[in-house]
Amino acid sequence: MSIILISLILGALVALYFYLTQNFKYWQKRGIPCPNGAWPVVGHMLPVVCMRTTASEHIAKIYKDYKNQSLVGFYNFSSPSLIVIEPELVKTVLQTNFASFNKNSFQADPDLDPLVAHNPFSLTGDKWLAARKRLTYAFSSMRLKILLENVKPVCVLFENYLDSKISKTGKVELELKDLFSRFTAQVVANAGFGVDGYCFDDEKENVSFRKIGAAILEPNLRTKIVFTIIFVAPVLKKLLKLRFIPKHIDHFFRTLVAELIEQRRTDKIPRNDFLHLMVELEKLEGDKFDLEIIASHALSFVVDGYETSSTVMSFVVYQLATHSEVQEKLREEIVSVLNKYNDEITYEGLKEMTYMDQILSETQRLTPAAGFLTKICTEEFELKGSDGLVCRVQPGTQVQICLDGLHNDPQYWSNPEIFDPERFTPENKQSINRFAFLPFGEGPRICPGMRMAVLQIKAGLAAFLRKYSLELSPKTKVPLEMIPGSILPSPIGGLWATIRKL
Ligand code: HEM
User: Fold this and answer.
1) Could you say which of 61, 65, 382, 457 is the most buried, measured as most Cβ atoms within 10 Å of its Cβ?
2) CA–CA separation, 319 vs 476, rounded Å?
3) Which residue is closest in CA terms to ligand 1's atom 6?
C-alpha cells in the first residue's frame, strides 16, 4: 500500500516537474544559445528571487557569459526572454524596427495603479504619442529655461543646508544619495508644483517631498519585493494584485493637484511650473478637463525623474570624491563659466560646462540608472546576428537590452572598469558606438525627461562644487555592492563622503 502511495507521489512530482519545465526547450528548439540551470517556476531567476543579486547584475552576467554571440535566450520565470547582445540588433529593436517592439514590459494595471497607467512608459499607440508630446514640449529649450528659474532657488536652499550642517571644524560627513535626494525632491516640489518640498528642513522630514518620493522607489522591504515581482514576474503581479504606487501616495497626488489647481483658480497669480503647463496643455487639447491625467503627469515627474536623477547625481559625486584631479578640473570649469555669467547659474552657462557633460556620461556608462530595458515584441520579426544566428521573435516575447553589459564591454570600451571622462571628449565621442551607450535609452521611446534631468543635475553640481570640496569617507564599502531587489543601483551601506567648505 505504502509503496503504491510513494510511487504515486513520485509520479505526480515527476509529472509536475515536466509540466513546470515544459517550456524550457524553447530556445534550444530555435537554435538560440541559452544557459543551463533553469529551475521549475523561476527559470533562470533563482539568484534574483533569493535576493543574492540584482536583476541587472544577473542579466549582465548572462550577457558577459555569451558576449561572443549576437543573441542569448533565458527563462524569466517561465517566459522565454531574449537578450540582444549585438549593438546593430539593439538598434533594430529600439529604433529601426520599433514598430515590432513598441511596448515596454512594465504595464500598469489601470484598476490598481490608475495614475501610473497614464505614464508614457506603460502606454502604447495614440495615448502614448499624446502623453509623450506633452512631455517633449514641457522639456523643450524654451520651457527648460523657465524651469531653471525654479531650480535656482533650490540651489540656494541646498547651499544653506550644507552650510548649516558643516560644523565649526569646517567639514561634515554625509551620505550622498540622501543628500542629492533632498535636492531632486525639492526640484520636483518647486519646478513641478510650485510648492516648498521641505526637503532641507529636518523638522518637517515627515511631510517632505523626499519622504513621498522615498515611499515609492527607495529600496525598503516593500519596494524590494514589489519591484522584483513587477519587473521580473509580471504574471505574479496580476495574481497578487500588487500596486506599484502605495494607495496613500496615489491619494496624496490627487489631493495635492486638485488643491493647487483650485488655489490657482482663485489667486490668479501667474506660475511657470510643470503643473501649470500641464493644466494649460490639457485645456488646449482636451474636450474635457481631466484631473486624473494632470495628477498622473505630476506623479510622472516624481516616479520617472526624482529617484533616477538623485541616483545619477550621487554616483557622479562619488566618482568626484574618488578622483580628486577630476574634481579639481571640473571645479575650474565651473568657476570660470560662472565668472563669465556674473556668478549666476544660467541656462547658457550650464551648456558651456562641457567637461561636466563628459563626467556625467562616464558615470552613467559605469553605472547606468537602468541596468537593462525590457521590450515586448508586438509583431513577429526576424533578428539576424552577424554571427549567423537567426531568431524569428514571436509577439509577446520579452526582449532585453543589457545596458550594464554594453556599457562595460571591452569590445567597445578600452579598460571599461576605469573611470575616464576623456572617453567623452568631442573628438573621442565620434568613435563611440551609439548603441553601446544608452543611459537614457534610444529610439522613439528615448527618455523624454533627459534634458530636464541633465539640467537639474548640472545646476546642482555647479552649486555644490563652486563652494565645497569632498573626499570619500572610509564608511563607504568599496568595491561597491548593490542592494539586491532595488530597482535602481543602490550601494549597500551607502555612499559616504566628507564635505568641506572651500
Ligand atoms: C538621470 C535621470 C534619468 C535617467 C537616467 C532616465 C532614464 C530613462 C530610461 C533608460 C528610459 C527608458 C528609455 C527606453 O525605453 O528606450 C526612460 C524613460 C522615460 N523617462 Fe527617464 N530618465 C531620467 C530622468 C527622467 C525625468 C526627469 C523624467 C520626467 C520628468 C523622465 C521621464 C521618462 C518617461 C516618461 C519615460 C518613458 C518614455 C516612453 O516610454 O515613451 N525621465 N528614462
Assistant:
1) 457
2) 12
3) 440
With a 6 A CB cut-off, is 360 part of the ligand 1 pocket? no
Residue with cell 549582465: 60
Is 313 within a domain? Answer: yes
Nearest atom (ligand 1) to Cα of 308: 2
d(CA 345, CA 155): 9
- State whether 262 and 303 are in the same domain: yes
pLDDT per position as a tens digit, 397-446: 999 999 999 999 999 999 999 999 999 999 999 999 999 999 999 999 99
Q: Each residue of 266-295: pLDDT tens digit?
A: 887 878 888 888 888 877 776 566 788 888
Alpha carbons 283 and 191: distance in angstroms, whole number: 20
> In terms of residue numbers, what domain contains 60?
1-107+381-438
Q: Rounded distance, CA 188 to CA 61, Å?
A: 35
Q: Is the CB of 405 under 6 A from ligand 1?
A: no
Q: Find out whether the beta carbon of 132 lies less than 6 Å from any atom of ligand 1.
A: yes
Asked whether 53 lines ligand 1 (CB < 6 A), one says: no
Q: Who has greater pLDDT, 491 or 303? A: 491
Residue 2's pLDDT is: 80
| 23 and 143 fall within a common domain | no
Instruction: Kindly state if the Cβ of 320 falls inside 6 Å of ligand 1.
Output: no
Contact residues for 445 (Cβ-Cβ < 8 A; gap 6+): 94, 98, 102, 104, 120
Among the residue ranges 39-48, 220-229, 370-379, 465-474, the one predicted with the least confidence is: 220-229
Pocket test for ligand 1, best of 140, 274, 440, 452 (most atoms within 8 A of CB): 440
Residue 375 located in a structural domain: no
pLDDT bin (cut points 50, 70, 90) of residue 108 is confident
Q: What is the pLDDT of residues 116-126, one digit of tens each?
A: 888 999 899 99
Shared-domain flag, residues 341 and 386: no
Which of the listed residues 438, 460, 478 is the one where a domain comes to its end? Answer: 438
Q: Ligand 1 in contact with 485 (CB < 6 A)?
A: no
235 CA to centre of ligand 1 in angstroms: 24
Q: What angle do CA 348, 304, 258 make, to 5 degrees?
A: 100
Top mutation candidate among 304, 366, 398, 446 for ligand 1, by most atoms within 8 Å of CB:
304
Q: Which residue, judged by its Cα, is nearest atom 1 of ligand 1?
A: 309
For residue 342, is it within any domain? yes
Phi, psi of 491 (to 5 degrees): -70, 140
